[in-house]
Design a protein that fits this description.
single chain; 351 residues; alpha/beta; D-Maltodextrin-Binding Protein, domain 2; 9-stranded mixed beta sheet; two-stranded parallel sheet
């Protein structure tokens, strides 16, 4: 899209900065630590294969990236926000307040997190209820809330191994903590009845406040050493398991697949994590990955449209591309995304 095709409001906002924006010849990207390695691969390949400078890709987290995207328009603001969770209405509202009226939502594929343990250890068939029962701070016991004192997995579920509970989980600032919280802790809390008990115990003034309290309590984990936050990358988790063979760790699917000689993966709800089960939505602990584009910068920041198209091309994001080799689960609807990008289609209202 050329600058001539910008909406009147966008053109007016960008007019004062147009000369300066044109002077910035590299694309600026920030956001999710989960999307960061994929974006870095694309950015480096883009710099090598196109007559544009290599885009600058930074982390900072999904929320921080979306916040930066919504600061306004012009050369002092970023062009793309990487995100491992879908944009929120509050982000969209903030964007609009700052003159960012059109945002393109680009789903690049899927990420899946897995539980894995030492290759020579026992098999694990987990459910979210098992995970919450093992590491939740408070659990439902005889119809009441009680501090979690389970020592072994078999105490949580007799079908699980009699192995001491030691779970290395993503730290609260880690890129995968959100999907861990929602898909495992929150889901397990509700499945075990603890959520209902938290609702009853809440001192919240209304139903919304009670629900907020209950969900916050569901996400609390044990502080007695059974659950250990890992703020570093997956190599740290792998090292912890090497030093503690009874440990169970949370990994990205790609990292696990690159270390199958050291790790044994657990099923969740009876589903083996794989590219196929994640892309189909069958495996429950997975999520789509996105990036969000400031549409008004297309035609102003050199190479922005070309970068977006390159990212979602079959050559990069397809099942045989380098992103899949690194661990991205290719989106079965990639062709639809490619069409939306080609047409510069802005996202509609959130569902």
């Amino acid at each position: 899209m050329s600058a001539m095709k910008l909406t009147v409001s966008a053109a007016a906002i960008l007019a004062a900065a147009a000369t300066a924006a044109a002077a910035r010849d590299n694309i600026q990207i920030a956001g999710s630590s989960t999307v960061l390695p994929y974006a870095t691969i694309v950015a480096e390949a883009f710099g090598e294969n196109f007559d544009f400078p290599t885009p600058v890709v930074e982390g900072g987290g999904s929320g921080a990236g979306r916040k930066k995207l919504c600061e306004g328009m012009g050369e002092n603001t970023i062009d793309i926000a990487n995100s491992s969770s879908r944009i929120k209405q509050s982000d969209i509202d903030q964007c609009r307040q700052n003159g960012v009226d059109e945002i393109m939502e680009v789903q690049i594929g899927y990420d899946g997190i897995v539980f894995a343990s030492a290759i020579n250890g026992p098999d694990f068939a987990l459910t979210p209820a098992d995970v919450y029962g093992a590491i939740g701070a408070q659990v439902a016991k005889d119809g009441a809330l009680a501090a979690n004192g389970a020592k072994q997995w078999a105490e949580v579920n007799p079908d699980l191994p009699a192995q001491n509970i030691l779970a290395f989980i993503p730290g609260t600032k880690h890129g995968t903590r959100e999907v861990f919280d929602i898909k495992l802790l929150e889901a397990g809390c509700k499945a075990t009845g603890a959520y209902d008990l938290f609702l009853v115990a809440s001192a919240g003034a209304d139903d919304a406040a009670k629900e907020k309290d209950a969900l916050a309590n569901c996400l609390e984990v044990r502080k007695d050493g059974a659950a250990v936050d890992i703020d570093g990358d997956y190599t740290e988790t792998l090292a912890r398991i090497a030093a503690n063979p009874n440990g169970m760790g949370v990994f990205g699917l790609s990292f696990y697949q690159n270390n199958t000689d050291k790790l044994k993966v657990a099923t969740v709800d009876g589903i083996v994590p794989s590219v196929e089960t994640i892309s189909s939505g069958e495996y429950p602990v997975s999520r789509p990955l996105y990036f969000y584009v400031k549409k008004a910068h297309i035609g102003v920041i050199p190479g922005l449209k070309e970068y977006i198209e390159f990212f979602v091309s079959d050559a990069m994001a397809g099942p045989e591309g380098p992103l899949a080799e690194y661990g991205l689960v290719s989106d079965p609807e990639l062709a639809r995304t490619q069409e939306a990008v080609a047409n510069e289609t802005p996202m509609g209202p959130l569902e």
